[in-house]
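Incident review: delayed structure delivery

Summary: a single-chain prediction request sat in the queue longer than the usual turnaround. Root cause was a stuck worker, restarted by the on-call engineer. No data loss occurred. The affected request and its eventual output are reproduced below so the record is complete for anyone auditing the incident later.

Affected input:
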Amino acid sequence: MKAVKTVRKASGKVVRAKILLFLTAILVSIVAAQPKLYTSLKLSFEVYENGLVKVNYIVVLKSNMTLITEVSLMGSPYIEDNTAYIFVLDEKGLPVVFNLSQNTISVETLGVNSLNITYFTYDLTSKEKAIWKFEVNSPINFTVILPENVTIVGLSAVPIKIDTVDHHVVVVMPSGKQYIEYIPSIPKSSAPKKSSEKTSQKPSTEKKENIFPENIVLFIVPALAAVLVLAVFLVKRRSSIVLTEEEEVIVNALKRYGGRAYQFEIARELPFPKTTLWKYVRKLEEKGVIRIEKRGVQNYLILLKKI
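Output delivered after worker restart:
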């Protein structure tokens, strides 16, 4: 009898374990099937010399009635002394309460329309010998600002746009898994200087110091190729107007209204505060992209050029 009871208890535990496993699988499938509660609007990366990356990620929520929204980040935020270097603001520029778990944040989004997320991470860069590599898997087109005075030696895809701003190469890449490889430029101080004194014609027995890195030849060919690619893109865009990401977002919003709209109309679907939006609108007028007409107390925006 004892043996029969033991068998029944064991079989009961097995049945309960199977039921629990089945319910867990159903719950996981339900969670996985849920659509994202936000749309990615803007993503940019600023890479520093030591490989640290500043990420700015703006998302628009599909509903402001959601209590908690989970947002996936590109790389885990850098943590030092139990402090995570990450900031989350709403569309009004006010801080939002959130919890961080590796590369995911759970944000309290009741009454919030958009999130502006800024953080720092080391997860997106790596270095092999003299070559640095920035790599990311992005849901949307994104912008990368590389460190000062670097040369691109490798790209995973043809960039959408390449520009140079204050000695920084700025690259706009398409969505998906992309990478950019680059090397620091050789400082001018390492170039040999001509001596003003006449040197002796006798051959020197001293070994000359090698002023260049040992493997510099390996980088010359790809560096020249990268320079050629940059030159082609710069020539193509010479006659075009260069817009910032924020300005492009405003132009695209204006296009959705047929190229003409009141400022308050496009403001409804943009994450910028009123004063910030006005600043970008004025910049677009200075560049000759739009015209601002005063109609009553409202600003009426007219798109002048196709960008």
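Verification: The radius of gyration is 28 Å.
Action items: add queue-age alerting; document worker restart procedure.
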